[in-house]
Request: fold
Amino acid sequence: MKFIGNIIWLVFGGIIISLEYLISSILLIITIVGIPFGIQTLKLAVLALWPFGSEIREAKSSSGCLSVIMNILWILIGGIWISLTHIVFGVLLVITIVGIPFGMQHFKMAALALAPFGKEII
Reply:
């Protein structure tokens, strides 16, 4: 069932979301200062490509205080807007009964988009 959900997700926009995150990741990695943020958008690209069955966990080697500081910078620079976009799409999808599983995936992505540092995708 997860496989079918992921295929439907890809067909109806998941590949576009993933490509957008991938392009922004490449643009951020080109700059030296943006490398840590580019790595985080790469996490979002991976999750946007195959969200059903993926799980977000705290990284075992999270760097504690540094992750908190980087998450604060991430939120201030634009993470809040990315997260709000996923929340809006999630709410719109959850309104329909058929879209509930897809809305839940947007909520999962919103949580990662709000604070991606110190998290890993399994």
Notes: The longest helix spans residues 65-95. Residues 2-121 form one domain. The chain has a mean pLDDT of 92.
